[in-house]
Structure prediction request, 517 residues.
Amino acid sequence: MIEFEGVSFVHPTGVKALDGVTLKVGGGETVAVVGENGAGKTTLVKHVTGLLKPSKGRVLVDGVATTATTTAELSRKVGVAFQNPDHQLFSESVEAEMAFALRNFGFSEELVERRVAWGLELFGLTEYRASSPLVLSGGEKKRLTLACILAWDPQVVILDEPTVGQDALQKERLAETIRMLTSTGKTILVVSHDIEFLWPIQPRVVVMKSGKVVGDGRAAEVMAQKGLLESARVAQPQLVSFHGALRSRPTSPFVDPAEARRWIAGERR
Amino acid sequence: MMWLSSGFLFRSGKSFYHRIDPRVKLLCSILMFVCAIIARFVYEIAIVVAFVLGVAAAAKALRRVGRTVAFTSLFSVLIFGLNFFVTRDLESSVLYAARFVGIVVSTSLFFVTTSPDELEQVMKTFRLPRDIVFAFVTAVRFVPVLMLDAMQIMDAQKSRGLEMQKGNVLRRIRSMVPVLVPLVVTSVVRSGELAEAMESRAYGAVPRPTSLVQYRARAADKVVAVAALLLFALTAYSFYVVLPPLGL
Prediction:
């Protein structure tokens, strides 16, 4: 679905934001991109939407090179919820905000109405239908931006720091939504620092550092590599580090007895 | 767009011109500005612009000031068109358009080589009201931030299928609405937050706050100021007495 083939990107200021990234994301996969600030995560996902074009290498979305198409055309397949919802809300009502992209894509008015109603219902925003999006709370604005994207049913959904400004309950609902989208076969890319949010979703985890992919694998595998996470300044999920701590202290009833015996034998020696 | 507008932004440098007292730099820019105003012919304005570009080259800011020329050229075409439409006088239309470039380039040299902090000190030297100084300097300081916001908003709207480069002029102008509304809203919100942050840090608690920086003109600054005034007098004399009245 998405292929990065030796992609490098140099900003006009001369900063190398991506350095030879090769990555393949299959259809229906949920991938979390993690790494410290400035690691190149947002630059990476901006290549998927064609907002940025690679300085070297190429990016393919559904077999089409992003250099051969426009962002507006690509956005029919790729929906992005940017970090700051205030950067996209402008309409006079929540309803009009949701309909904006649908009309840009030429959906019929009947379909626009159906999709808007579906999105508002899904994200609990129906009561704000006629309100200005600018008066919503931070969490509601975030939900609205996500609803706006899902309304046109893109194949790929990109969430850039979706948990910023969200309370615990909203995070839980967001995780539910991601699981729901995964079950409907959507390809999801989540850029996040919030490891505790990502852990229960159990995505494929791509670790980035200085514009390079330094780790890639199942969440359980990658999150267990403390050294790798530390080098990329990513915190280990509490559950994983707690598990690690339990494993090194065989006083817990969860530890395999045979393992405990071996540990005791080692200690005695 | 970003490339063009960065022509007005300060970037620190170590050139001689960067190190001159900002009050002297302001004097130089005002004199160049006045030269562009009093010039009677296009070739005289060309001399002024060439001089400004020469100073910019010496200050290693030619590329930035060159961007200003490129940016203002777009507006000067508009000025030329409007003037010519109204007066049907080719010579005066070109003169007004060229004069606009001269005026903007001479002021741009000041902004490109003077940091917002220096600008603040200069304004304080003239005993301007503190609130006005703060508002002006903050506006200058926030230009790059607003540009970054505009870029991010454009990215967000393009990702929702907004085509900004397609269609006729009217459609293109209309496509700016989804960019301008969030830009204005975020700016208003930011200014409110900034005001609260400033007040919580005792802004306005005393009528005359102390200042860390006190400018004292060095000998080199005085030499530059005197040289600038002499050069200005010479230029004005040349424009009105020595140089021949040439048309376009």
In short: Chain B has a mean pLDDT of 85. The two ends of chain B are 31 Å apart (CA to CA). The interface with chain A takes residues 2-3, 149, 152-153, 155-163, 177-178, 181-182, 185-186, 189 of chain B (CB under 8 Å).
